[in-house]
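Figure 2 data, in text form.
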Amino acid sequence: MSKSQLGRIGLWSMELRYGDKHEAAEAAAEIEDLGFGALWIPGGIDDAVLSDVTALLSATRHMTVATGILNIWKHAPKDVAAWFDALAVSEKKRVMLGLGVSHGAIIGDAWNKPLAAIEAFLDGLDDSGMPRDNLCLAALGPKMLALAGNRTAGAHPYLVTPEHTSSARKILGADKLLAPEQGVILESDPRKARELAREALKLYATLPNYTNNWLRLGFSRQEVDDISDGLVDALFAWGGMEKIVERVKAHHDAGADHVCLQVIHSDGISGLRSACRELAGALI
């Protein structure tokens, strides 16, 4: 898959994975018409994300459908490759599977040596004939980013800043895909915006994969533990559309090929659709 297939702006959405399937299909079709290049859906806690990718492929005509992430502990490489092989040729061109190692707190005792685990998973996909150009890794640290560049199309970092994008680009090199997620909040009131952000961060702030990355980015242990205003403001764009446009531009200027926006709100699929209309008007 070429970088241009993803476009410059995508959407990362829990609602389109876990919401009503009929509403999700209608929303996906509208989001495609608005000009978003890709839909990213999470799959980190179960083994059913590929069926939802199939449904979203059916609901759309040309946009990419991507996973952020497919949990390697919940799938077998041969099954993933077989699913991909069964797709129509036109659909294969629209699939990007973001793979990830998830978290010890979610997986339990089986979770260990994440780098070795994902290398083994990639070996299995290679053996099963899965094209590397349709794969990327949920990579945060230098070693995982280097592996993403060596073994897949590139990287899909989550909950990161433009500063992380800049360092990731240096590790990946110029030619590899870099598609960071960026949380956005269509709210100008600081208290309301940060309240939404903290609620969204509550689980992630307990997971070492993320907290260690924020420490690498220069945040103090106290800022991470408190989910400080500074951390919130660095990870989420809020304060008016101009602030969101500015943050997306910062990622692109730092080396991102594609920025997938996650709308943080509490209004379900209808609220997502409304937000996407606003975002498309300013960014696409």
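Caption note: The two ends are 21 Å apart (CA to CA).
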